[in-house]
Each structure stands twice: as C-alpha cells, then as structure tokens.
C-alpha cells in the first residue's frame, strides 16, 4: 500500500442537480436544501468507550450516512496504514484506531470521526440557517424599515421646514409691524419736539424783539426827553419796565427733549436679548474678579477672588484701612471698569436668601452707612435684589417689584454700552428678569452685596 494519503473523491455525481439550483439560501431553509439534494442528515451518536478488541486494532468502518454527506475513499494513517476514523481533540488531527489505543494519542480526548463530522455538519447547518435568517431580517429591514424611515424622514423634514418658515414669517411680520410702530412713534415724538422748539423760537424771538424795542425806547427817553417832561413820564416808564419784566427768564424744559420711551419695546428688547444670549457669541462671557481692596469687612473673599461669603461677627477679621473699601455695607466691586462694548457675566447665587447684583459708578461712596454707599439707593448704582424670595430692581432709592416664577440659582447681567442697556436674566432659561435703558455717563463696575451665605462669579 502506498504511503501517500488517498484523496477522497469529492466530485459531484453526474446525475446530481447543479449547485446553483440545489442550494439557494435565500429561497428555502438549509435542511430543505440538503434534503432536496438527496442527502439525509443523521444525528451524531456519542460513543462512551473505545473498542480495542477488533481485528487489526481497528474499529468498525463508518457508513456513508454516518460519515457525512459526501462518500468516497478516506485517508490512511502514515504510521499504521489504517483508516483515519478517529479525531484527536487534544492535537486537533485525524488518527487511526491504533494511534487511539496504543499510539501517542491513547491518553488524549478522542472522538469518532463520524461523530466529529456529524457534529461539525450540524453546526454548519445551524450557522447557515442563522445566516439565512439574518439575511432575511436584513432584507426585510431594507425593504420595510429603512423605506418607512425614509418616507417618515421626508415628511418630518417637510414639516420642520414649514415650521421654520412659518415661525420666521410670523416673527418677521411681528417685527416689521413693531418696527413700523416704533418708527411712527419716534416720528411723532420728533415732530412734537420740533413743534415745541418752533413755538419756543417764535415766542422768544418776539420777546427778544419786544425787549429790544422797550430798551431802545427807554434809552431814547433817557437821552432825548427834557427834564420837565421826564419828571411826568414816570408812569409810562414804569409800564414799559413792567412789560419787559413780564417777558420772564428763558429756561430749558423736558418738553424740549425727545423722550427715550418712544422707542421702548418689550418685543424688541426680548429679541435683542435673545440674539445676544443665544446667538453665535452666546458663550463669550466677560471675565472679572472681585477687587480685594473694595471687599467689606462683613465679607470674606476666596483665594481665587471669585466667591464672596457673608461672615458672622465672631469670625470677622480686622481689615487694613483702604479708601476703596466699603466699611459699613456688605459690598464688593469688580476689578475691571466697563465703558464700551457688550459684556455679560453670571453669578451663582446658590441658596443665598439676601443678595444684590448689578453695576455702579466707580465714584460710588465707600464710607459710612448712608444711602450714598448703599447699592441701589442712589443714582450711581443699578442692582437686582433678592431678600427672602422677594425680587426687585433698585436705582436711586426706587424699588421696582419683579415677578419671578422660579427661584434662580444663577443670575446673569448683560451690559450693552453702545445702547446704554442693562439687563438681568436667568441663564438656564434665558428669561429676562428686568431690563432698562439709562444714561451711563461714567465707566461702570460690576457690583455685588450679600448678607446670607455666598455668591460666586461663574466662569
């Protein structure tokens, strides 16, 4: 017998159907395919022991149905020239019965070849069925789910476009109407002031003419009237003087100034604030620290200069005298003056039940317990105040109560110097708490006061 292994004949019999018609995974299950090809799978049998008494040390030969789908001559062991009818699971190779009983593989884990082949074929059948089912699921997913998703996507995109166009159109229409209303209000105010100016000009020109005439007449009387006639002209002179005095003194009035309220618009302010707070530069906040020189002895300042904490009497430490320090009110100012551009900053007020945030002139009084050094109680400071849940805006000692739906954990301040606008808002929702337009004649400093817990500049 030759030492070379005898190859198995794997050629398809001439009477068997073509491969492309015998196996078509997308049309039918794999078991049906195998059955239609004239092959019947047989469940693998598990053998509990080895038969070592057979002739030539070999085991019973496997039948075609036990060995697998294809039949033919099998390879022989090179050492014993016996049929390779066992599988060594330890070394993952085929061996003969001699190798399995007395050879090098006698102590290894051995499996009959028929059982090994049957198990692998069954595994392949399971794998092919799973792949077939997965392919069907993929096909259904493509045909149904993705198609439905595409249709829903187009419908959703169309609705979104319509919504955007509708909302922008409504906003544009409302803004155009507001623009027209405000321009008309400005025009009316301009015409009113112009009419006042014209009236004043006519009045005072007539008064000026009258005064000049009266003066000229009195000068003529003084220089050309004989003494005897002048002595009896006292009544006439008195009437002329009284008429001149009746002209009165010219004075500037509010009627000659254009009212800034004519251009005030809650809608326009809200849109402007939305553009600033939610626009492309929304994340740009102005960074500053508290100026340690200004911090009141009633407060303590963190090492990073961002947090102010109200201190009780026992823990207060004496502070060196500084003309910039507040000595009576629990105030502190920012380190950088603001006199141009747009600036916004956020303060974490946490659970503090008593605080003030806003801006003030650098010339604000620092000493004493009077209103001149108290934030919001003078004309040099503008602050939003919270006292035990009661929110209000203070300026010049006047209080404007605010309706706050939800107690904010953070308060934002927006200062737009070109439009002289100061705005307070709630950063999480960008809800405007209060806004105003004023004339800031001097640079402003961020200003804070706290008498409960602490507040922190957020970066």
Automatic annotation (TrEMBL):
* Molecular function terms from GO: zinc ion binding
Residue runs in coiled coils: 161-192
This one is known as: B30.2/SPRY domain-containing protein
InterPro entries per the record?
Answer: B30.2/SPRY, B30.2/SPRY_sf, Butyrophylin_SPRY, ConA-like_dom_sf, PRY, SPRY_dom, TRIM/RBCC, Znf_B-box
Which SMART domains does the entry link to? PRY, SPRY
- Keyword terms, alphabetized: Coiled coil, Metal-binding, Zinc, Zinc-finger
Query: What residues does the B box-type domain cover?
Result: 72-113
- Superkingdom: Eukaryota
The UniProt transmembrane annotation reads none
Is the keyword Ribonucleoprotein assigned to this protein? no
Q: Where is the B30.2/SPRY domain?
A: 268-459
PROSITE patterns of this UniProt entry?
B302_SPRY, ZF_BBOX
Recorded source organism is Knipowitschia caucasica
